[in-house]
Amino acid sequence: MLATSMLALAVNRAEISTGNLRADSGKFDNLKATWEKSLNLGDWKTTMKANYDYNANKEFLKEVSLSGGLVEAVSADDVGVEYEVTRDFSSRQTDVKLTASSGDYKLSAVYDTTDQLREVGASSKLELGDQTLNVQPSWLVKAKAARI
What we know:
The protein has 148 residues and is mostly beta strands. Helices cover 6% and strands 61% of the residues. Strands 1, 2, 3, 4, 5, 6, 7, 8, 9, 10 and 11 form an eleven-stranded antiparallel sheet that branches. The radius of gyration is 21 Å and the shape is elongated.
């Protein structure tokens, strides 16, 4: 009971998957836990998220991510820059996504340690009569293909 209470205090969410506990001698299939914390590093506000998955990596965390804004847009005419960096310890891959936005327009780039620059995209809202259309074209670099 005490271990369960300590686990609940240390994580934001925990999930245990099991089969038939009586037939399997009390073994569990998997244990997953997620922890998320907002951090202030000087003027930067970032969110750190850590995931644990027993089946993926029982010795350490499965992945850790940091996300937040590098530059905040104060008005609709300003450009804001946001980032998300994720390190997957089981696959040893790091993904980075940068997004610059101004008003309804966004430009994004996705990079990872395996494929390097993976995708470049843009998004915007188009007004067509009384309808609003969200357009998100992107270029898949390795595949040399466009996605709309």
